[in-house]
Amino acid sequence: MRIIVIWLLLLLPYYFPGYPISSCMGNQIDNLNRLIAARRSSNPPRSELWARLDDLGNSHDSPVFERSQKGLMQADKIDTLPGQPGGVDFDQYAGYVTVDPVPDRALFYYFVESSVDSLNKPLVLWLNGGPGCSSFGIGAMQELGPFRVNSDGKTLYRNEYAWNTVANVLFLESPAGVGFSYSKNSSDYTDVGDKRTAEDSYVFLLNWLERFPQYKTRDLFITGESYAGHYVPQLASYILSRNKGTNQTVINLKGIAIGNAWIDDDICTKGLFDYLWTHALNSDETNEGINKYCDFASENLVTNITVEQCDKYQNQGLMEMGDIDLYGIYAPICNRSAIKPDSNGNVLNFDPCAGVHVESYLNLAEVQAALHAKATKWSGCGDVGWTDSPSSTLPQIRELAKVISVWIYSGDTDGRVPVTSSRYAIKSLQLPVETAWQPWYSDSEVGGYVVGYKGVVFTTVRGAGHTVPSYKPARVLTMITSFLQGKLPPGHPSS
Ligand SMILES: *[C@@H]1O[C@H](CO)[C@@H](O)[C@H](O)[C@H]1NC(C)=O
Ligand SMILES: *[C@@H]1O[C@H](CO)[C@@H](O)[C@H](O)[C@H]1NC(C)=O
Ligand SMILES: *[C@@H]1O[C@H](CO)[C@@H](O)[C@H](O)[C@H]1NC(C)=O
Ligand SMILES: *[C@@H]1O[C@H](CO)[C@@H](O)[C@H](O)[C@H]1NC(C)=O
Q: Which N-terminal stretch is annotated as signal sequence (predicted)?
């Protein structure tokens, strides 16, 4: 039952010929749609893996690939990025870390140190979702990194609200097949999933910490969005389990934060349709039909009649909302033929065509050389075959909340993995409220709302869509700064 809807979303571009889903930032979602659709195919992704945190623990002493990283940090240092603006006051690095030497699988990273007092700032790992989308091209270049790409596709402008103002930020393209990350064994591109993504990311981190040994004992926070609602809790669980091994660098993991995160198939899908109705994008009749015929909680109770009816009403709901950007329901949509190549970007003006500019920029030969990347056709989302994915990461989130800081945040104008989905997911954890729902402030305005549960903090970011920092960079920086400092986002400035 849970699968039914999302493949309809996949069809959306065909219903609306002008729909810009693949041109801009919908790519993370295209891949998610494909994965969800695969659940009802004759060869669905395996979901039994990762069922419990304990499952990961039984091999925590098995050897992990590590090799000498001497001299590689200096080799990875970026001189300057083509088209970079003046006044850059922080160091940048990019390169590959081998995660499997035979026949050679390597993950690409981009690392920006903090512009202020980097030695005393934590390390933040950022992961985009998909599955199969680039944390560098989307996360760094369109959301929270220090630069964004101008509409000429050749020059960069500063993001004054970059997260490296408050942390040292590491962007990882994972798994192999995504962005510049590669494998010499092509079956790595067709047989990959949540499990290998977490394992490879862990091997990456261990070796990266050898390359940058000054970060070995630094506080680490893992953050991400969308399908990273899988990656982040899974990697965090894996690290904690591996930390129990006696033979390994202990990674100093302090917390995770996941934004507009795909956490649970059933809950996220129910949240999507409730959001469409409560945001005046769907009719009463459609919503009543969905509530009557769709059983989000159980596949077993569903008869064929109700499946058909549920399908019908969900399809109707997607048609009724019209040609809008579901990932930021009040935002403009990208019109490629209206791009003016000579206009300078400004981080405070949301650019629906940002993905187009990034794709041009990252495919320039001089840019790939400056990044120490292998010459390749770069794209935002890789065509990777996803063969394992549990339908929920709530079991891991529940366990993590007992030992590290867990924040779940949500841009409240995203209709694809909306705030309702996040709230239903948290509600199902049945955690007691410790700090009541309240507004938090950024630049003297309400930045969003926060509620503190036992072990989990939930915050909204007001007015932000799916890729939260590309819509509301200042607000999300205020929020993430609080997260890194272990306190709730600030209250009213006068109080
Ligand atoms: C533990 O580390 C040592 C030295 O690096 C290595 O020789 C040994 O194989 C490791 N043992 C395991 C179980 O990984
Ligand atoms: C490529 O990967 C597959 C699946 O893991 C494995 O069976 C095969 O041996 C690998 N090939 C090489 C050349 O390593
Ligand atoms: C649903 O349809 C399938 C195939 O169309 C059939 O095998 C199955 O028995 C039906 N189930 C019910 C409850 O009608
Ligand atoms: C896209 O931009 C072109 C050129 O400005 C314009 O003619 C066209 O109407 C626009 N299309 C949409 C759907 O806005």
A: 1-18
The token duo for 12 is 């959306």
Is position 33 within any domain?
A: no
Residue numbers of the domain that contains 262: 41-266+325-485
**Which pLDDT does position 385 carry in this prediction?**
85
Q: Taking the CA of residue 370 as centre, how many other CA atoms within 13 Å lie in the half-sphere pointing to its CB?
A: 15
Q: Is residue 27 part of a domain?
A: no
Mutation pick for ligand 4 pocket among 21, 334, 337 (CB with most ligand atoms within 8 Å): 337
Let me know if 392 is a catalytic residue.
Answer: no
Residues of the chain with pLDDT under 70: 1-61, 297-305
- State the DSSP string of 395-421: HHHHHHTTTSEEEEEEETT-SSS-HHH
Q: Is 322 helix (H, G, I), strand (E, B) or coil?
A: coil
How far apart CA 313 and CA 319 sit, in angstroms, is 10
Atom nearest to 307 CA in ligand 3: 1
pTM here is 0.90
Active site residue 283: no
- Tens-place pLDDT, residues 158-175: 999 999 999 999 999 999
Token pair listed for 495? 């109080």
Single out the residue of 407, 370, 359 nearest to residue 133, CA to CA. Answer: 359
| Same domain membership, residue 374 and residue 233 | yes
Tokens of 410: 């949500």
State whether the beta carbon of 74 lies less than 6 angstroms from ligand 4. Answer: no
